[in-house]
Amino acid sequence: MRVRPISPSSLAEELADRIAGTPRGSWTRVAFDGAPAARPEELADTLAEPLRLRGRAVLRVSAWDFLRPASLRFEYGRTDPDAFYDDWLDTGGLTREVLAPLDPGGSGKVLPSLWDTATDRATRAPYVTMPPGGVLLLDGALLLGRWLPFDLTVHLRLSPGALARRTAPERRWTLPAYERYEREADPEGTADVVVRADDPRHPAVVLR
Asked: In terms of domain of life, where is this protein from (predicted)?
C-alpha cells in the first residue's frame, strides 16, 4: 500500500472536486469518520466553503448530536468501551432524520441535530430542507460498518501510537473501542478515501 503526502489545503480542494463531481440532480451524503483526536469535524468544516463556491448547497451535521440519552449510554457505566462502540450512537435516529430523507426520491427534509448531551434533552432544532444537489457533510467516530447509507466515506486514520498520544487523558478509556473498530469494521479497507492523519499538518492519502 502506498501513500501520497498532501497539504491540508490541497486535500480539501481534491475532496471538494470529487464531491462536486457527483450528480447534481440528487443529494450527496459524505461521512468524515475518525476518532476525536483525528479532528474529522475540522476537515468537514473546511470543505463547506469550497463546495459552495462550486455551486453546491451544504449542510453540516455532527453524529455527536445524535447520541442516545444518558440512561442508555451509561447503562453499563460511563467508561465502558463496548457500550461506547455499540450503544452510544443513535443509528436509527441518524438514519431516520438525516440520511433516509436524502435517499433518491426522499423528501430532503433533514433534522440537523437531535439530542443535546449537555442537558440530556432533545435539541428541538427545526428541520432544514436541502435543495436538490445539496451535500451533507457529516462528521463522527465509529461510523463505518453500521450499514449507514453514505454516498462517500472519508476515514481519518491514526496509528495506535498517535491515537493514544493525542487522546485526552479523560477519554483514554475509549481506546479499546477503536481497537475493536479496526478489527471488526476495517475502516481503512472499507472507506472510499483514507487519509493518514498522525500529523494534522502533513496528511497523506492512501493509494489503493
From this structure: Bacteria
One-letter amino acid for residue 60 of the chain: R
CA angle in degrees (0–180, nearest 5) for 90-22-99: 15
Kindly report the three-state secondary structure assignment for every residue of 38-104.
HCHHHHHHHHHHHHHHCCCCEEEEEHHHHECCHHHHCCCCCCCHHHHHHCCECHHHHHHHHHHHHCC
SS3 136: strand
Spell out the domains of the chain, with CATH numbers in brackets.
2-198 (3.40.50.300)
Q: Which three cell numbers stand for residue 107?
A: 423528501
154 in Cβ contact with 11 (< 8 Å): no
For residue range 143-197, what is the model confidence (pLDDT) as tens digits?
999 999 999 999 999 999 999 999 999 999 999 999 999 999 999 999 999 999 9
Burial of 57 (0-12, 13-18, 19+ CB in 10 A): middle
The answer to whether 173 and 76 are in contact (CB under 8 A) is no
Question: Is the full-model pTM beyond 0.90?
Answer: yes
* CA distances (Å), origin 81, targets 34, 142, 147, 157, 186: 16, 12, 21, 19, 18
| Alpha-carbon torsion, ordered 87, 91, 93, 97, to 10 deg | 160
Q: Phi and psi for 130 in degrees, rounded to 5? A: -85, 130
